[in-house]
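Chain A, query sequence.
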Amino acid sequence: MDDTAKLILLTTTHRVAPGLLSWPAWEALRGADRVLAGDPAHPQLPALRQAGVEVELVEQGSAPALARLLTGSAPAVWLGSPDGDPGLTDALARIAVEEAGQVPEIEILPGSYDLPGARLLDLVSVMDRLRSPGGCPWDAEQTHASLVKYLVEEAFELVEAIEEDDRETLREELGDVLLQVFFHSRIAEEHGEDPFTIDDVAGDIVEKLMYRHPHVFGDVEASGTAQVEANWEQLKAAEKQRESVLDGVPAGLPALAYAAKLVSRVRRAGFTGVPDEPYELPAELTSESAGELLLAVVQRAHDAGVDVDAALRAAARGYRGAVRAAEGLATD
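Chain A, predicted structure.
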């Protein structure tokens, strides 16, 4: 370190493995007269001690008291606590102003940074805490089956936020759907015979995406979206070993979405073995003729490039708005 008395506030993130620090951080730690820390359970301590860096533990106390202790201990490196040492930087700034020229130079040195997606590790920790002894009784009682209704509900709320172009709600609903994935994965860890973790889930989808995108991760050529979709369906068919073009379409989908998915599969496969004629509206609708009419609408909508499910929801929203207006109520 140089001759100027300096207090280095070394910040690190608990989302990166201990010891994975920047080179300037290691230089500061190895060259410091004193390295101080206030958290005896700081995740970096074992790695620093293994590297031969001696760390002195001090009583943190209040932020002003800690700031006074640190400025009086310079030159030194303060190993910032995982909670960010609330109030410490403000207290140091006040001392620097009140005692200008009498305090050491203060430098904030980031020792490690969060990588993209790092906050997902926090969600893993939160879910583990909620499901572990001493956590939340409600969360601990949930099963895959009991959470199904919430997963469906959150998915539809996300769809609504997308269709209404509500950015704030979109962000919130994406989080709610993400929570469901992490919740189910945490429950899966506890299975007695076939456990798996969120890492297994993520690993599987990474492998699937790379396998089904050979035009990106391999040497397959794809000139456009149509060829990409054709390659995708061919790879899925080989992977799943499906006998029918309709295998794998979940029957639990809402009726309109189910019909749209069936028609989409048939159209993509170029299958022509079923009648597909324009349907005339009968004089009197029955359960059978109403179903045939709706299926014909789904077929025509697909051929016109219309998402029939989204179209019906939009029409329903318009209908709802018209009814509320007729009632003299504000529309949503």
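The first strand starts at residue 6 and ends at 11. The mean pLDDT is 88.
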